[in-house]
# Entry
Amino acid sequence: MDSMRTNILHIMGLSDDMKIVFKSVYSSLPDPPISLHAPLASSRAAHPPLDGVDRISALPSEILRDIISRLPAKEAARTSALSSRWRGLWHSVPLVVADSHLKHIGRPPRVDELDHRGGILLRAIDGMGDAAPRVSCALAAHPGPFRGVHLTCTPMDAYEIEIALWLQLLVAKGVEELVLAHRASDLETDVPGRRRAPSLRQFPPHLRELGMCSMIMGGKDIAYMLDRCPVLENLAIVSARGPVRLRVASNTLRCVEVTSSLVKEIIVERAPRLERLMFWEAWGMGGTVDMTAGLIGMHTSVKIGHAPNLRVLGFLVPTMHELNIGNTIIMTGTKASPRTMMSSVKTLGIQVKLFDHNEVRMLPSFLRRFPNVETLYIQSETIPAMPPGKLSPRFLQETGPIDCLQKHIKKVIIREFRLQRCELDFIKFIAERGQVLEKIVVVLTHSCSSMADRLHASLRTFMASARVASEDYEMIVCESPSPVDATVWCFQGAFNMSKDPFDVSQCFKDGASCRAA
# Structure
């Protein structure tokens, strides 16, 4: 599958940079809530009754509308041909319109039909030559509102006028979920931000969920957008093609997710309903890449003001993410006070090099900001050129009381575990201080997963000498869900408020929308 995808990207004429962006963006896009391949009936129901009576059409209108709401837009409209009972019902049902559902299905192109950019093959793959007119018809024919609109196959530069019209229609008719993905052929010469006038001035006021992938948006653009989306609850920025400067001042946002992007600053000024502030591969600005020490000197400002309902935060990266709470920058040794603590956070994620003394020294300061954390995720980073070492003895001996660790943390999950001595020392540190600790879950890297039983035995042997604070805690060793040695992120899990968004145990199973990098 990977080789086929790579060949397709080559035929599509994308630059090397855009191939990376393309893979990143399209692996993170949520699937439309309606599938073309969902079975509509069992094998028994597929056969008409012997008496020829149409019992389905006799069902109440609300049930018929519910049936229509589960169909792709094209099939929903076709129900009008079933009988007079169905005629016009689809107009009163919030539909899902996806350009990928409206693509042309025809014979595959011959080799002699391909140009140097693979244009005809590209249209056969994603329907870019046929979907746009059908999207126009679908959006114009339905009075709205729309349950969801997914535009992921239509190149925005080729259909600027149409996309501007679509956004105007969605503003007028209403849409709850909108997914836009711009696909450029070159990272430098084909920039969607240079054509943003038609799009950024139009946002559906009923929009509740918005994901922006591979876009260039300045801080003022994002602020303008948030101001024009008065009921927006979920916002995702993925693979931004420029530095992200995000200021959150919203009475409705519940989840903000920023991934695979360079981030200058994230400032939460006022967000009374915000429950999740999440970043993955949100790299700082500046700095250098060192083969022995990794990323050095990168900096991102993360400032949290009024967010009284924030429950999930992470992954914070010590020394890279400059955490500011209550107008106080959190540094090594910063004393905890009510003004510099966030008691609402229950789930915290920290990405750290446990062999790096500077990063490890920041851990207690970070943990003391969140006194009521119950679930702690540690993403263990490593650098191939850096030999593994021990956790600093000074850290182990001199670290004072940490309130959340002693009184509240029940579960600690350590991801990308390699059985390095610094990782073992950290587990011991947690176990000897966690008075209410119930579980330590160790998630191995992919390359270590084949040795899970042996590593579990080694871990038990190492922990035999620990003076654990909670005799009832359980040690669990899990294999990596990733097919390669990589960190894992579940994009769609961020918006699922009933799910732990950092739990990747089911990633890469049952078609989950997850990515490893």
